[in-house]
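Repro:
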Amino acid sequence: MAVIYVPENVEFLNEWNGFELPKGILNKGVTGCGATSVAIKDEHKTIICSPRINLIKNKVSQHNGLLGVWGDVKNDEILAYLKMSDRPKIMVTYDSMPRLAKLIEDKTDWRVVVDEYQYLLIDSGFRSDKAIALLDSVNQFDYVTYLSATPIADKYIQQMEQFNDVPYTELIWDKVEKIDVERMVSAKPINNAIEIVRNYKKGEFPTIGDAVSKECVIFLNSVTNIANIVHQTGLKPEDVNIIVSKTEDNKTIVREIGKGFDIGTIPLAGERHKMFTFCTSTAFAGCDFYSTCASTFVISDNKKVHTSIDIATELAQIAGRQRLACNPFRRTVMFIYNVDIGESNADIYKEAIERKLERSEKLAVWKNSASDEVKDDVVKETFEM
C-alpha cells in the first residue's frame, strides 16, 4: 500500500499543483476533497464513470466542456464531441460505460476514473452483471483510478478477480474535520421527520451559536414516505425540492402530491435553495449542495436490520454533500432510526454484520471452488440473483 501525505495548506486536491490521481484504488480519506475536479480539470483525456445520473447532471452543469453520457445520450452526439474536442472530458454512468468504450477506437493516452467505486458492491446484489460489464470495459484502458472515501469497501473489492495486482493508495490529511452524527432512536421516524418540517414552518430553526439554519436537507429511504410527509405538512411546491431518480413510478408518486409538484434538481452554487429538500439515495454519492445554512437529517424507517445497516453506511457520503465552508451546519448530521428491530443495542448491528459477512464469505468460497464444467452455470446464476 502506498501513502500520500496531503500538504497542510491543501484543502482541495485540485488546488495542489502537480498532484495527479494515481493508478489503481485511491482511498481519498475524506469526502468533498476535489478529487473529481482534478479529473475534470487536468490535461489528460478523461472518462469519469459515475454510479448516478444526478451526479453527472450536477457536475456537467458546473463545468463547461464536460460531456454527460447516460442512456438517453445518442452515439452520434458522443462521436461528434470526440471529433471536435482536443482534450475530451466525459462523465458516464456505470451502465453506459461499455457502450462508450466501444466508440473510442484509440484508447491510448486516455485515463479512466471510476468515481464512488464502492457502489460496485452496494449495487451488486441486483446489478452484478452490470458491475462486471463496467470492469471489463474500463480494463481496456491502461490508466484507471478507482475513487472512494468509504474504506469499508476496499477489503472486499480487492478480492474480486478484476482487482488482482491493482495498486492501492491512501491519502493522509493533516487536518480532518470530524462529523458529528447525532443518533436518535424512534418507534416512528417518519413522525420525527414531520415534526422537523413543522418546526421549520413555525420558524423554530436549529442554531449553532448565532447561526440559524433556515433550510434543511432530509434523506429518506422511500419516495412514498417523502410524498406522505409533504402531504401531511401541507408544503407548497415553492417550499420543497424533491430529488429522486426519474423513474416513471417516482414521477407518478411525486406528481400525485398535487399541482405543481415534480422531481427537482440540485441548485448550483449561488442559486436559490428552497427551505426543504428531500432526497433518496440517488443524491447520496458525490453531488454538491451549496446551501449556506442547511441542516442535514437522515431518516431510516425500516423493520429489518440489514436495511438499516445499508443506510447507516451512507452517512459518510451524506455528511460530505454540503460543500460550503461558510455553512456552520455542514459537519452535523441527525440520524433518526426506529427501534423496532433492536438498533438501540449496538451489538445488534455488529452481530448482523458478522453473520452477513460469514455467510457471504462461505458462499464466495463455494462458488470459487466450482468445477470448470459447472462454473459457467454458477456465474450465470450469480448474475441473475
